[in-house]
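I am writing to request your help with a piece of structural work I have in hand. Here, with my thanks, is the record as I have it:
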Amino acid sequence: MSDQKRLFLVDAYALIFRGYYAFIKNPRINSKGEDTSAIMGFMNSLLDVIKRERPDHLAVCFDKGGSADRVEMYEDYKANRDATPEGILTAIPHICNILEAMHIPIMVKEGYEADDVIGTLSRQAEKEGYKVFMVTPDKDFAQLVTENIFMYRPVFGGGYETWGIPEVQKKFEVTEPMQVIDFLGMMGDSSDNIPGLPGVGEKTAKKFLKQFGSMENLLANTHELKGKMKEKIEENKELGLLSKKLATIMLDVPVDFNAKDFELDHPDVEKVKEIFLELEFRRLTDNFVKTFTSGEEATGQSKSNASSKSDTSSPSSSSAKASAGEGQFSLFGTSETSSTEESSTFDRKTIDNTSHFYQSIAPGMGTTLFMKNLMNQKSVCFDTETTGLNPLTAELVGIAFSWEAGKGFYITFPKEKENAQELIEILRPFFENENIEKIGQNLKYDIKVLAKYNVEVKGKLFDTMLAHYLINPDMRHNMDVLAETYLNYTPVPITELIGKKGKNQLTMRDVSVEKQTEYAVEDADITLQLKEHFEKELGEANTQKLFDDIEVPLLRVLAAMELEGINLDEEFLNSLSADLDKDIQTLEKNIYEIAGEEFNIASPKQLGEILFDKMKLVDKPKKTKTGQYKTGEDILSYLAKDHEIIRNILEYRGLAKLKSTYVDALPLQVEPSTHRVHTDYMQTVAATGRLSSNNPNLQNIPIRTERGRQVRKAFIPRDENYVLLAADYSQIELRIIAALSKEETMMDAFKNGEDIHASTASRVFGVPIDEVTREQRSNAKTVNFGIIYGVSAFGLSNQTDLSRAEAKELIDTYYETYPKLKAYMSDQVDFARDNGYVQTVLGRRRYLKDIDSRNAMVRSGAERNAVNAPIQGSAADIIKLAMINIHNKLSHGNFKTKMLLQVHDELVFDVYKPELEDMKTLIKTEMENAFVMDVPLDVEVGVGVDWLEAH
């Protein structure tokens, strides 16, 4: 057994930030209104390390003032970092006071980062014969690993793993840890704003290290590279060397390792308890006292036993699971935590330590008896297991059912289609029984899978994902997170059954029935328990009606739309792609003629040299920190009106992006089994309530350019018996803000059917409405829409031809013209400050925790959201109501017309021609009457042989 002493160096901000964000959706606020999340998270993790490892020596290392040397090398170093949250800024002084009371040294040096402090101390301690463990999840520290210096990394799910030389070699595919610096330099680091080598990601960096061994050797042998990669690296050699310097942890910080000062001493228990009492930490106080009164009782592990492992590379097992004391919380265990401080989130429940009864149902009599029991239930949670994630092609492998916590059943499906259909017919009475409530997590998927088997899921629905979205819209909503957050339970990960992504991944059908049963029924059981929890919270948040009347009914509507899909004219897109190629080639030719030579237009370096060295378009062109000319759109747009080559370059870029992102990509999204495009609408992404379209995203198809609009021409009706109909809310957000603010002049303009932008221009510029110029109307339009998003004079001047002074004057005049509008905006901010949220006309809440932040930028962002969220969210709620009402009318009327797409304020329909006139009336009426306000809603309806013509 080794007697070698061990030093633990804690990366303070890593623990503090993780502690804060672990509680982000359920922050710990004491009776004084202080956010104590960061303090609690940090302290529980620090105590965890002490209890588990009983280190001989310990220090906590902080940043102070950032890295002066790195900023001097590269001004943009860490420049993209968000402002530090208020809850962390206020936590630091408390944490420092606690550490002082615990007699734990705080190591910090002005102008250096904690990485550099830890690096320097670890090397000094190693020379004095210590084993050093760097407590951090930050991969950058891997470069410091030696035979006696290790990373002590938190792992997801609880516990820690220790990285020695073999682990670093395996993780980064290097021969020695120092090569991690080259790895980081090559691929860059977005979190620290280290640029890296353009085009080099993780795989390429590893490949280069195997081939060349170092950054310098790579740059010296670029002749061995080919094509664009060779060109990119040769053009950015200096950037690569700079990136390596930025990624290198410094080992010469003016700090000293004094062994005696770093000894883990007995704390001033009374002083710590006094601080905890002030912060209102009850459970944490007990945890702290146990940690420092009886080590063996607190940890279940003696110090000598922990030390017996110090002759290996790991202070505890390399992927040790948590073994902390009662009530312990580890911020490394998960990104979410229990909603109360009293719960034990570190000793999380699993299928292995929780009593349960999960049974696989045998065919024949077993299934008959199960069905008899199932049909007697009032509320049942079910979960489908399938062969894949695409509901249009996935086949049923099994279905799990649960109606009592801790219990559930699983029915496996045969692979043969006919036999599977026979089994689903046995289950059909349950799914189509309108008196049994169906519970699930992401029920839309299950509904679409069952639709393939011609089964309709009827009756009341409860979707836990949607319920949680309304309760905590900014939080993640996947079941694993919800289980850990609200039930203190970690479900079996799917990768444990089928492996990780890749060619060797299995399907659920390859897994044994026993494992399928445990996994699937656990999901149904946990979802059932979450439903019980969320039902209460929906009531407390006053969002039950929103859940019952909008989100759940919309779930069925979206499932029907997604299953329907939309027809795509692939031949037209192929033709458009060829036209774009010609346009791009013509633009290339024009650009080369103006420039006087050929060059790589897509290369910022070559483009900058042509525009600013050769053509000298501006006297003092802006440069990046590496000395390369800036050629971003913001720079070029400013020059476009004066230079034809710039206009051509911007058009070239736009067409190239349009071609790759939409024209060439959309045909690849056609589902072979239906020959249609099926987007997936997400209800739980945008906190405002807006739907999001995915795979493919049909909400972002550009419409501002002629070529962009042509993409819509590719979306066509089902066949010659149908036409497309597009119905679009006209200026709905302006109508909502007029109604909510009770601004009579704006309300009257809408009631009288006036052009709102001309009406605004008339009032703001003081001219009769029939004398408003095009420019005045355009400026008024920019202000009308900009006000909702908190446009500033600077922002308005950038969007118009107005100077900043003129823009300010226009905004001031606007508010004078519409005083109630300004008062409403102020009232919304006040409401957010008083209540912590704002809400839509239908009660959808947007929580704004930063509304009182001391950071001006963070606070102003929350204030803008306080105004914008109710407007944008109300518009989203209204079109959702319209979709539900229209879907019901189409279904009950047995119409052949189908609703296909929702694109923000627009709905697109496949209309059966004999139903066209009825549809025009029905759709317009339902949309305009979806919600009644003091301002009328107006809907514009268009019809065409494609989406462009209809729009």
The chain has five domains: 6-172+250-307, 357-533, 568-676, 722-732+875-950, 733-874. The two ends are 78 Å apart (CA to CA). The chain has 39 helices and 24 strands.
